[in-house]
Amino acid sequence: MESDIKKTAALFKALGDENRIRILHLLSGGEKCACKLLEALSVTQPTLSHHMKILCDSGIVKGRKEGKWMHYSISQEGVDSARRYLDAMTAVNAAKEEKPCCE
Amino acid sequence: MESDIKKTAALFKALGDENRIRILHLLSGGEKCACKLLEALSVTQPTLSHHMKILCDSGIVKGRKEGKWMHYSISQEGVDSARRYLDAMTAVNAAKEEKPCCE
DNA sequence: ATGACGCATTGACATCCTTCTATGTGATGT
DNA sequence: ACATCACATAGAAGGATGTCAATGCGTCAT
Questions:
Q1: What is the pLDDT of chain B when averaged over all its residues?
Q2: In a domain, A101, yes or no
């Protein structure tokens, strides 16, 4: 439960950077290798590598090694768990509704 | 388009902190005043105020002032726009699929 | 008016994050 | 074996972020 919060925070933290959002936009067009991402992003190669590690660790992106190339794609499970969290948040549970405290 | 990225990043950045996630969990039970959030969170009052500002600025929470009390609740529109972004990311558009670059 | 209360703002400090250059590692080709 | 290529890792620098104590600002009651 408490570790759930940690994982959720890591997931959304991963989504909270402009360059990583651009990367995800690119990946929404399908699996891409690192070199293609690199030429689309105006960052250096180590910076891209750093962002890809964060995205993979958070679970929203998965990597596939093929020879010396690295192919990245969006992980459906990662997106699903993010969506599941948003749903849980949205579900303003009327049953849980409590009396206002201050009036 | 570019400002969309900024707004999206701000929204997910707001979701990427453990205490703010706890706040949203509390708010999923319905509107709450700041004092209730405060006693549930083991942070000081200025820290809570700071987090509430970030959540409100990102659009995922809205505040309602009533006398000297501040009531916070989850903004459906904010959650929707977050969900919309996740959907856009998920939609692995087969039409946009391109030839792999490196093989 | 004055004091108490609820919350916001300021300023300081420590930590984390993003980015870079430099270097390491593993696979491919000659 | 050696050079080259694609990517990862290490280390450093600067900026952003989370937290607190102190203070400010409305609002309410007396």
A1: 90
A2: no
